[in-house]
Design brief:
- The protein is mainly alpha-helical and 214 residues long.
- The protein contains 9 helices and 3 strands.
- The two termini are 28 Å apart.
Length: 214
């Protein structure tokens, strides 16, 4: 029987996990930037077709929106190839909203990877990085309890309206909370499945016995 697929979780902090589907999708999110040095042969990559008779490069001074993965690859403090601008949800105006009441914000609408994408912004040299990091942390703390409380008090209820406002990380936490509640309910009713050794342990035992026999 084939082993069940186990999803790989996203990376933590400013580093990505390239085996994680969530991180791959997050790295495709667009980031506003200004080109500080001409970028040859990148017009097609960014969906900017060159006009007749012009090169397929992006001239210096152009404002573009590029995927996060490309921005990280091009960014260099010493050569100044491009400068990255903050997406509006991470700017001071929105940071003030988060500090007032983070629970009122529809994070999924503003950016489905608010925490992961915001952590990635710390890779770029920006004087507002300490404030961004603090806001991300306090937003998570402020919303975490409500998310977990909701996951524990919404057994067998329609939670689509609540989940629709959550960032992808928060959705994963909500699902984890609901699974824990469901498992507990099954245990209370005597419906919990029998605990068995994992396939890794069973295979290890087989190899160990084979080595002993040899």
């Amino acid at each position: 029987m084939a082993e069940a697929y186990l999803p790989v979780g996203p990376g933590l902090g400013p580093e990505e996990n390239f085996l994680s589907l969530e991180d791959i999708l997050m790295s495709q999110e667009k980031l506003p930037a200004r080109v500080e040095a001409a970028l040859p042969r990148l017009a097609a990559v960014l969906g900017k077709g060159a006009a007749a008779g012009q090169s397929d490069g992006i001239p210096e001074g152009s404002k573009v929106e590029i995927p996060l993965w490309l921005a990280k690859g091009l960014y260099d403090n010493k050569r100044r190839i491009l400068s990255v601008e903050l997406p509006k949800i991470y700017k001071e105006g929105w940071r003030t909203v988060f500090s007032a009441d983070a629970n009122v914000v529809d994070l999924h609408k503003m950016g489905p990877y608010y925490y992961g994408f915001g952590s990635q912004l710390l890779n770029f040299d920006n004087p507002e990085n300490p404030e961004i990091a603090q806001t991300i942390l306090q937003t998570f703390i402020g919303r975490f309890r409500r998310i977990m409380d909701s996951s524990q008090n919404a057994y067998n209820e329609d939670t689509s309206a609540l989940v629709a406002r959550l960032d992808e990380l928060e959705r994963a936490l909500f699902r984890t909370g609901q699974k824990g509640l469901n498992d507990f309910q099954c245990w209370e009713k005597g419906q919990a499945s029998q605990i068995t050794a994992s396939s890794l342990v069973q295979n290890y035992r087989k190899r160990k016995f084979t080595d002993m026999d040899g």
